[in-house]
């Protein structure tokens, strides 16, 4: 609101701009303003006229823009306050999501404390109750989803991991790499594995290591299928095949050990040669040291040759376990067994005992049999479809 009337502003400006001698003094006596104030009023009026003549936004437009910005600013402040003070439902969802991502209760509370004011951060017990409630709700949903998805799982890869010495029975569907089971304990016996595998009624194949517990579990699951089937003879048995991962890992462990031993023997032989040179330089008899150096080099060369031979055999075994031959066609059991026998003939020593047992097990090459079986079924199905279309 203006503190000076408009006519006073204009009158003061007229006194200054008239240029008459004594006009400003008389105006000061009439209005009670000082000469300086009157001159200031004149400058303001003159500037206002200049601004009006120059064009641009009018006073009304500027005032309307000011009101719009003020309303928008108030709305933004209200939104910021609402975002800062998260409602309990949002905090609940935040805690559940953080727990699902692997965050502990303490980490969730630390993150909530970043954007919640002091005194509004929930306690550890409250966050734990939220997470427990979400876990129960998710468990109910997952139970329904498991039932709906179980019939789509035809192959399972089984293994166990350990958490504080307690076994976790793991199951993964290999084509989608979906983690379909993670049962905590109570043990890894055949009974525990049988109960786990029995939850998947349509599983046709299981891939696992050579552990006796898994093999016993698959056997129990097959027996349960026969007992539950109306026609026991028609019950489809679960086929068990050994994975190539554990076999190849055992082979690489032995090969790396042989290379390390060969390197140590080569270093020892080089040191023996150095001792021979030092004996000669000192003018001392080096025949005994030279003989030791000769034996050291012989052992190193033998170990080096054995490591090279084992490395080549390991590469041949890896090629035999793959699905495709170097020329691009599918491998079959007969071809792979021939190459594995030839490679095993090159491997000597008790350290290869486990590898020999795994590669001699018929279940090791079941993956090649399954591929051939699936290919035969696909060809038969395609021919049947062509006959129908014809």
Task: Please outline the helices and strands.
Elements: H1 6-18, H2 23-31, H3 35-54, H4 59-84, H5 88-100, H6 105-115, H7 124-149, E1 155-163, E2 166-173, E3 178-184, H8 190-197, E4 205-208, H9 212-228, E5 239-242, H10 244-281, H11 287-321, H12 333-344, H13 353-360, H14 366-389
Parallel strand pairs: 1-4, 4-5
Antiparallel strand pairs: 1-2, 2-3
Helix pairs in contact: 1-2, 1-3, 5-6, 5-7, 8-9, 10-11, 11-12
* Average pLDDT taken over every residue: 84
Tally of individual domains? 4
| Largest sheet data | 5 strands, mixed
- Per DSSP, what share of the residues sits in E-state strands of 2 or more residues? 5-15%
- Which value, in Å, is the CA radius of gyration? 44 Å
Q: Count the helices. How many?
A: 14
| Uncertain runs | none
